[in-house]
Design brief:
The complex is a heterodimer of chains A (95) and B (147).
Chain A: E1 2-7, H1 13-28, E2 33-38, H2 39-42, E3 49-53, H3 54-62, E4 68-72, H4 78-91
Parallel strand pairs in A: 1-2, 1-3, 3-4
Chain B: H1 2-5, E1 11-14, H2 20-33, H3 39-52, E2 57-59, E3 62-63, E4 77-87, E5 97-104, H4 112-123, H5 125-132, H6 137-144
Parallel strand pairs in B: 1-4, 3-5
Antiparallel strand pairs in B: 2-3, 4-5
Helix pairs in contact in B: 2-3
Classes of the chains: A alpha/beta (95), B alpha/beta (147).
């Protein structure tokens, strides 16, 4: 399972989410590779799940990237993050 | 790490800001004053907002304006700005923003520890509330010193 966190610059907010998501997948017992990338490079990236805040995922949808897209309202709420990520992982059969 | 980076000279309190643009200017001023960033870095923050939107609003009331190292960063730095009355960033879920942490990174690894501690701080509602309601810089500094 490859999870890619996307943000505008690929070094600030995506790093923040990457840290939380690494903890969450570990909690869920899913073996996943979590990395981050900037929006400009997302399209060519091969992965199963893209994660980002609304502004970012709207653009991922517009770019029609291949993969599940998980949209977050904020980067601090780990409970919502876990819920939405679990739903995507379940859909992909990883949970 | 935060206690080393967020010294009193980079912590500022403003009663209000006219709009999100002015709050970004406020939030970058301390780093311009101490030479950590160039004016081009502020322009780059505005540009990425225009292109992508307020994606750097990280949670309820909190924004982390930043651009890329090559946009004009002289050294790894952070600044903390409180806008007491809050300002709208057109980010429904998280407006109004009261706390802005400007991040200036020189590469993609040296700021990892700072980000880790910022996440810790952002998740501590009590500390965030105390920072947003602080009446002076010393009160904010006393919270930052715990990180």
């Amino acid at each position: 399972m490859k999870i890619m966190v996307v943000c505008g610059n690929g070094l600030g907010t995506s790093l923040m989410m990457e840290m939380s998501i690494k903890t969450i997948v570990k909690d869920l017992g899913v073996s996943a590779n979590v990395d981050h990338v900037d929006l400009g490079s997302a399209k060519g990236t091969d992965c199963d799940i893209f994660v980002g805040t609304k502004d970012i995922t709207e653009q991922l949808v517009a770019q029609s990237v291949v993969g599940e897209i998980v949209t977050l309202d904020n980067m601090i709420d780990k409970v919502a993050m876990k819920e939405r990520l679990s739903a995507a992982l379940t859909k992909l059969g990883a949970l | 790490m935060l206690k080393k980076m967020l010294t009193e000279d980079v912590i500022r309190i403003h009663e209000s800001a006219e709009n999100w643009q002015q709050s970004i200017e406020f939030a970058c001023q301390a780093l311009l004053d101490n030479g950590a960033i160039e004016p081009s870095y502020v322009d780059a923050i505005f540009r990425s907002h225009q292109e992508i939107g307020p994606y750097y609003v990280v949670g309820p009331g909190i924004a982390m304006p930043h651009a890329r190292p090559e946009d004009g960063v002289n050294r790894l730095s952070l600044s903390l700005t409180v806008i007491k009355q809050g300002v709208n960033f057109d980010n429904e879920e998280n407006d109004p923003v009261k706390l802005l942490l400007t991040l200036a990174a020189t590469d993609s690894v040296s700021h990892v520890e700072a980000i880790q501690q910022l996440v810790e701080l952002f998740m501590n509602e009590e500390h965030i509330e105390a920072i947003c309601n602080a009446s002076d810089v010393a009160a904010i500094r006393s919270i930052v010193e715990q990180y």
